[in-house]
Structure formats: structure tokens, C-alpha cells
Amino acid sequence: MTVQRGRACRFKLKGEREKASDKSSQFSIPMMSLVVALIFVAHPIQTQAVTYTAQRYASIAAMFYLAAVFFYLKARIIQQGGVDSGQWLGVSGQREERGGQRSEGRGQRSAVREVFGVQLSAYFGLSIVCGMLAFLSKQNTASLPGVILLAEYLLIDRRWEGWKRKIPWFVAMFTLWTVFVLYVAGFFSGGIEGRGLLEDVSDFMQETENVSRLSYLCTQFNVLVIYIRLLFLPIGQNLDYVYPFSPGFFYGYTVLAFLFLTAIVGIGVWNVKKRPVIAFGIFWFFITLSVESSIIPIRDALFEHRLYLPMFGFALTISYLVFHFLKERLSWAIIVSAVIIMSLGTATYLRNMKWKDEITLWTDVSSKNLQNTRAKNNLGNSLVLQRRHKEATIHYYDVLRIEPDNVDAHLNLGNALALMRDFNSAISHYVRAIQIDPGNEKVYFNLGNALMDQGKDKKASSQYLNALRIRPDFAEAHCKLGNVLMKQGDQNRAVVHFLEALRLKPDYLEVYNNLGIALASQGKLDQAIIIFRKALRINPTDTWVRRNLDQALKEKTR
């Protein structure tokens, strides 16, 4: 899709200046398109969007976004009688034929126009469908109408006469797109609060209230400079930058960043008539970042996967510059392009080594920002999964050294200590976490587990009840509370909690087993056998469940 998108741009922009008979021109156009695609896929900045499973929405959305613009351009090029339509209406030679042949030519033209209309409708329809699918995939694609306008102006028609006729159509398009975006994002589902539509939209268009729009915008001036640096020099890449927010326009390097970005936009404006490809690439970069790098506050200022779609503008600009300045020496253009692509590909390979597993990834993030508590927490969690509990505690203690009131660190450290059988230390961290955040049901749940492991069943049951008061649909807490009640001999209440856990989590194997045991202890062997068999349908290899089933069957035959 990127190859075809590049070709569509290139054909339209160069069609007036490069004749089809020019062999070097015919050769450079598809080659340039290929280089655009290869830079797009080989650049290491794309690693996060591709390798990180949770961010593959970015690549899916980009595919539909590119497809929407591509199909729009195809339709408009045909509509304008451009590259595609020239082969359909070959009329010039036929008009010089005899009358009978002219009549036949008119019939052929009528048939061609019919096919032409179907093709045109299909391309416009595909553009609309792909645009909708793009936004349904990821909301950063709300900028699509801006790119459509950019393509229309730079690639199709810059005449004021033409735009006067098109303004009503574009106004209608923007209106429908805005309604669609707000509807899909759920703006209308909650109703309007009556303070005014603008206030409601303003509140709706922010992911966090912890950052003001002005602070976020000023921060993004600096972030955009970092993005541009990463495009040209992808060194020091990081999964989680934890980039600080700028308190104002005159803080730090914000003013310099703004001037730098203004200069780049100025280069784009200056090249609108002289080199439209450069203008298109520059404006594509800014427009496709406009949702995530403008006045819509997001809790994380900087993420590399946000560059996945803007990368097309960068790749198009670089490819154009190489082939434009080396147009007389295409072999050199190919060599330079190959060097760029191979360098980027090598960097991508090396970057992917950091994504080998969670430990290597979070170790890399932690080493690049020693104050990144989120990375240290995640590194500790990854080590716990590898049963490297003592190593994990080192990173949790690091987090608490930086942020003494970090609830997640207290909770995770408590869990690691409990796995090391140091229950007293674990309980002290759970208690501290509760003091910081009394509404965290997970802390009560894990505190209950630690108390239960110490044999303090009554205290454990009170903690499970605390967890359930905060979150009644906590299936695991129902299961653990049922276990405690069963140990205390209160089988009836235990069965109630087991059944509730199964209602919330129908495939909860541990609950099936414990429920079967509780029913068997009540003498309800038939029900217990049914429950054990259901458990074996979930996991036929569970030896404990099979043993309990055999025991229940023996009890029944006595």
C-alpha cells in the first residue's frame, strides 16, 4: 500500500514536468516509490508499533489511513483525466475516421464512460470505508480529512475557481466526519450536560485532566523536535520515556523548539510550488501527529509508536530528495537509497534484540532513565515471573527510594516477599499500601493471602471481605473467602461464595474443585460428582480433580 501511495503522489506531482517518453523518468518513479516503502518498513522507529503487540492498532489504523488516501487519489486522478484515465479515452485518432467509424467511436466512449463511472464510485466508496475502518482501529486517524485536503490542494487542483465549487463538498465532508468521530468515540452516548456544546466537547477531548491543554501543547513542541531527531538519527530509542511536561511556553527549550518547527513549516510552504513532494511530506508529518501532539492532553507525552503513520511523510521526502538531486545519475540514487535502507534495517535488527523478552526490554528502559519508576516496577514483575524474587525486590526497593508512596511498588514488593515466605515483611508493605490507598482491593486480597499462609484464617477472611466491599465482582476474593470458610467448617457460606465466583468466572478450575469438595463434605455426592466432571472438561489432566472425583465415586458406591 505504501508503494502504491508513493506512486500515486509521484505520478501526479511529476506528470507535468516529466514526459512519459523519458526513460530515466519512467524508471525513477517506481524506484522512488519502492524506496519510500522500504524506508517506511525498515526504520527502527517502527519497531514499537510492530513488535509491541498492544500497539499493533497503530499499524492497522495506518494501513486503512493510507488506503483511504490512496483510493481518494486514484478516484481524483481518474476524474481529472490523469494517468489512469488517459488509457480509457483514446479519442484523438478516431475522430479522423469515417462517419461510420465515428459513430462506433461514440458508442465505445459511452461504454467507457459507464465503466469509468463504476470505477470512480468504487474508489470513492473504498476511500470512505477505509477511512471509517481507520478511525475504528485507532482514534489518532481523526486527522484524515486534513490529509485529504492536503492531497487535493497539492496533488490535484490549486486553482481558486476549482476550490470555490468544492468548498460545499468539503464542508459537508468535515461535518459528517466530525459527527462520525464523536459518535464512535462515545460522545453522544453519555448525553450533553447542558453547559453548552463547546464545553462538553472540550471536556470530552482529553484523556487526562492532570495536564492543561497549554502545558501539553508546549510540551509537544519539544516532543516534535525529538520525533524529528529520531527520524534522522534513531539513537537512544526507549519504550517508555516518561517525558516531563513543560509548565509554559518560556520554560526550557520550548521557544527554540517552536522556532525550529516554524522553520520546517516555512520550508514546506516555500516548496508548495517549487517542490510539492517536499511540502506534502512535511505537512503529512504534522497533520498525522495533530491528534496526539497538539491540544488534546494525553497522560504520556511521548511514545515512539505515534510516529508509525507520520513516517510516510518522512520516507516520501527523503526518497524524493535522493532521486531529485541525483536524477541525472540514477545508479547513484539507487546506491544512496540502498545504503540508507541497509543502515536502517541494521538498526532495526539491533533494536529488536532489546525486545527479546520482558527482562531485556525493561532493563533497557531502566538503564536509559534511572528515575523511571514504571520501568523498574515492570522489570521487577518480569523477574518475579521468572521466579527471581530476590532480584525483583531490589528494583521494587529502588522504586520506593524514588517514590516512597508508590502503591504498586509496595504491593509488588509485598507479593515478592510473600513468595519468599517472608510474610511479616510482606504484611508491613501491604499495610503501608492500604494507608496510602484504602480503596485498592488488590492490596486487601494479597494481605488476606499472606495472613492465610500464616494460619490466621479469621484475619484473612476479614481482608477478603474488605476486598469484596470495594469490588463485589472480585471472583478470586470469593474463591479465597470460600476456602477460609470451608476450613472453618462453614460449608454453606463457602458454597455460596464458590457459586458466586463461578457466576463471575465460569471457567475457574480451582473453584470447581473446592466447590466439589464442599458439596461432598455435606454429603451431596451426586452434585459433587457433576462439579468434578465439569472441572475435568476444563482441564482433563488435573490429577487433583480426578482424585477427588474417584473418591466421591467410591463414597457413593459404599
Tally of strands: 0
Number of helices: 25
Largest sheet descriptor: none
* Apparent shape: elongated
Unreliable segments of 5+ consecutive residues: 11-24, 83-104, 191-202
Instruction: Report the span from N to C terminus.
Output: 72 Å
Q: What is the SS-derived class?
A: mainly alpha
Beta-strand residue percentage: under 5%
Series of secondary-structure elements, N-terminal to C-terminal: HHHHHHHHHHHHHHHHHHHHHHHHH
Which radius of gyration do the C-alpha atoms yield? 32 Å
* Assembly level: single chain
Descriptive overview:
By secondary structure, the protein is mainly α. It folds into 3 domains: 351 residues, no CATH class; 116 residues, Serine Threonine Protein Phosphatase 5, Tetratricopeptide repeat (Alpha Horseshoe); 87 residues, Tetratricopeptide repeat domain (Serine Threonine Protein Phosphatase 5, Tetratricopeptide repeat, Alpha Horseshoe), CATH 1.25.40. The chain is elongated and about 95 Å long. About 9% of the residues have low confidence.
Quickly list its features.
558 residues; Serine Threonine Protein Phosphatase 5, Tetratricopeptide repeat; 25 helices
Compact description:
This protein is mostly helical. It is 72% helix and 0% strand. It folds into three domains: 2-352, no CATH class; 356-471, Tetratricopeptide repeat domain (Serine Threonine Protein Phosphatase 5, Tetratricopeptide repeat, Alpha Horseshoe), CATH 1.25.40; 472-558, Serine Threonine Protein Phosphatase 5, Tetratricopeptide repeat (Alpha Horseshoe).
